[in-house]
Design brief:
This protein is an alpha/beta fold. It has helices spanning about 1-20, 45-55, 70-80, 130-135, 150-155, 165-175, 185-195, 220-235, 240-245, and strands at about 30, 60-65, 85-90, 100, 105-115, 140-145, 160-165, 180-185, 200-215. The protein folds into 2 domains: about 25-105 and about 210-250, 3-Layer(aba) Sandwich (D-Maltodextrin-Binding Protein, domain 2), CATH 3.40.190.10; about 110-210, D-Maltodextrin-Binding Protein, domain 2, CATH 3.40.190. Strands 1, 2, 3, 4, 5, 6, 7, 8 and 9 form a 9-stranded mixed beta sheet that branches. Helix 2 (about 45-55) links the parallel strand 1 (about 30) and strand 2 (about 60-65). The radius of gyration is 23 Å and the shape is globular.
Length: about 260
């Protein structure tokens, strides 16, 4: 009889040990296509920090994963395999009807010209971005192959070189094979630091693109709630604090457009 009681007690102990954790929800999974310094393996990139803080305020666990294959990432979110996306342009809901855009933007993506010298190019102080693009014409310019914002807007320049990635792009500038590079502001600064060079970002940005989060329609009830939390984070100083934490080591004053 004792051996039977021992078996029963052991079975009960194992059932408790391996039973599903009732009430503990799996984290929502949002994908992005942007790496350092927006996301990183430590979860301390700006997008990581903002998304996690906004969902923390909603008492909902979340994880941000990187998927560089944009078409695949969009399909996974639209099909509901992933719970949504973050740091994506507006308008995706037109082609992906299962995705709902969170109205409050995550951040503005600034696409800029950068050089080793503070002199080229000389952007116009006018708010119209066209003079900035025109100002590139005398220079040898490089940017990453396939970046449509540059493919679609760059006007004739003295010479154009295409790089395969950010590291190669900064290498072209460092080696003197390009006088000006075109990139996203914070990635350019991060990669410049990795290569031990100082670059000058020329203002104003050539283009500024708002970036948003999207949720699958099964999370429709969270859309406005998440938007309100993002707005509140900008109003109470949390947003700027997280920006300084993520970007503060890059050698420039951190001011994000809200």
């Amino acid at each position: 009889m004792q051996w039977l009681l021992a078996i029963i007690r052991t079975g009960l102990a194992l059932s408790v040990l391996f039973a599903p954790r009732l009430g503990v929800a799996d984290p929502l999974r949002l994908s992005t296509g942007m790496r350092e310094p927006w996301t990183n393996a430590d979860g301390t990139g700006f997008t990581d920090l903002v998304i996690k803080e906004a969902f923390r305020r909603l008492d909902i666990p979340v994880e941000v994963v990187v998927n560089f294959a944009a078409a695949r990432a969009l399909a996974l979110a639209d099909e509901g395999v992933d719970d949504g996306l973050t740091a994506r342009i507006a308008g995706l809901e037109k082609d992906y009807p299962n995705l709902l855009r969170v109205p409050e933007k995550i951040f503005d993506n600034d696409f800029v010209a950068a050089s080793l010298s503070p002199s080229p190019p000389s952007p116009s102080p006018r708010p119209d971005p066209a003079p900035g693009w025109d100002g590139l014409s005398p220079y040898s310019v490089a940017y990453i192959l396939g970046w449509q914002v540059f493919d679609n807007n760059l006007k004739p320049v003295r010479e154009v070189t295409h790089a395969k990635d950010s590291a190669q792009l900064l290498g072209l500038l460092k080696a003197g094979r390009a006088e000006v590079i075109l990139h996203e502001r914070w990635q350019a600064l991060w990669h410049a630091r990795q290569q031990g060079i100082t670059i000058h970002i020329h203002e104003p940005p050539l283009a500024r693109v708002p970036m948003y989060a999207y949720l699958h329609k099964r999370h429709a009830g969270l859309v406005d709630r998440l938007s309100r939390e993002l707005t509140a984070m900008k109003a109470d100083g949390t947003y700027q604090m997280l920006a300084e934490r993520a970007f503060g080591g890059l050698g420039v004053r951190v001011v994000l457009f809200r």
